[in-house]
Amino acid sequence: MCGIAGLIHKGKSSNVGSEMTAMLQALKHRGPDSTGYAVYGEATAGDYVMRIKVAEREDMDRGRGIVDVLASRIAEIESILDEHKAVVKSKEEATPYALRYVITHSGDTEELAKHIEEADGVEVLSMGNGLELIKDLGDAAEVADAYGLNNFSGTHAIGHTRMATESDVDIRSAHPYWAFPYNDVSVVHNGQITNYWIMRRQMERKGHRFMSNCDSELLAVYTADNLANGVELEESLTRSIQEIDGVFTYLVATKDQLGMAKDTMAAKPLVLYESDDLIAMASEEIAIRAILPQEIDTTDPYDEEVRVWQA
Amino acid sequence: MASLSDAELAAMTQEERVKELGLTTEPLFGRSLLIEFNPDEEERFTYPWAPDVYYNKHEEIETDGLTTTQLNNKLTALMEEGVGTITIKNPRGMHSVGVGILNRLKLVIDGSLGYFAVGLIDGPNVHIKGRVGWSCGENMMSGTVVIDKNAGSTFGAAIRGGDLVCRGSVGSRTGIDMKGGTILVGGDTGALSGFMMQRGRMVVCGNAGKNLGDSMYDGTIYVGGEIQSCGVDAVEEELTDLDKAWLTRKLQQYQMMPDKGVDHFKKIVSGKMLWNYDNLEPSEKKLIL
Prior knowledge:
The complex is a heterodimer. Chain A is α+β, with helices and mostly antiparallel strands. Chain A has helices at residues 16-26, 65-83, 109-116, 140-147, 196-205, 215-228, 233-243, 285-289; strands at residues 3-9, 34-40, 47-53, 87-95, 98-104, 123-128, 131-137, 156-162, 177-178, 186-193, 246-253, 257-262, 271-274, 278-282, 306-310.
């Protein structure tokens, strides 16, 4: 079933970490397997926040040897950063298998990310100026506590609670997906893509990388491909309704935008709240009420509806 | 029938074609229609175990800290105490509130509800002052539900009787599989509204999305605005004086009469060409579709 949520503050920052946690916790019943966030904080030119995963959580149960494996993977990552002349400004370990680096880098981030992912078991979850992508098993409260998201100031965020259906319960199949290599583009999705393998093969022939067998990853790759060809976000969302088969509602966030698209059958829910300074949306109204308890007016977007909002 | 060519069938009117193909045009009757057209009988209809309630006995329920089950149990307990008017304060989009009330009751929701609001009800009069999520009034059998704001998709799915009213706009697949009763929508409705409708009436004062009335077996859909497209076997029919009288009565009853009146409403019914569909030859199926 899965739950998705998004919010964007217009022209100001807010504690989007705790707001998104409240929304996702209210959607826990739609997907208890994993929870993910893409939060957008203050961007500093030339600095990138890299969220990286060096193992799956289940790998941590493989005995004492895993500690040495992780240490060697982290050393390899830092050696690659050094090789690309990326200066590490800070490094945090949210969990033994998930790290956050702030780096200064003037080179090609796609090259850097690809090189880092050559290390065994390593996945770059995001590398953005403003974007930080966090995902792990468990509900929103657990993930927010583990990753210190309850005090994350930013302009916008998207999030996801996952009920695994067509792929495994693991971090690589959790949402959001980073639209690699677009530094600040992320996607969450509720639905099923029925032409996944056809579209995936098309994207792979163009050289795009897939890290999982989750159909939602296709939407991130598809968006990245469109952006690479100069397509605006709104046009990409509109095209997706015709080119991607299935039932889906998905959200895309960029450095300063939040967009949504709903399939031709309107089979997957989304409730939308719009005011002058805040846009909030979620699979169920109960999630919006978690941050806006007062009486508000909400609407359901219709089939084939595409919307984009500016921060 | 077999001796008729495709060209001959194509040249016929729909009514002639239906007759030649051995299909039926007889109208359907059922319990839901009797309830709809006999308000006296509806008033008298009560379950033997239903408690006596008194509308002048009023209680309020604060939802803070209550789960859906606790809230619904509290509703049942209050009705058993004879409380006939209950106000639920501040529900903040809770799901499945007021489901399965088989009793006379005036229920006021002072706020908005989530999914499956007041589904499977038989008898209560419900006023929701906010909006509702998906599947409001699903399978309701009698009573009235009035929503002041918007509603989500599958509004009134499989409704069998009663009046389900949304003053705002509703999502997609409104009245899917409805088997009786009336759905009134003050604003617009989304795609596939009236999909596989079997009986009852749906009134949409605004616009309707694509594939309206797709594969409907029977029933009637009235649309005051634009119809993006009709679905398979949904056809427009002329609005009769009886239709206008009924629309006027229903819309006035809920203070939803458009400024333009009812003459501009379009009437969509089943073409009934999909009846006995499985008995048709492939060439005949092609002709119908």
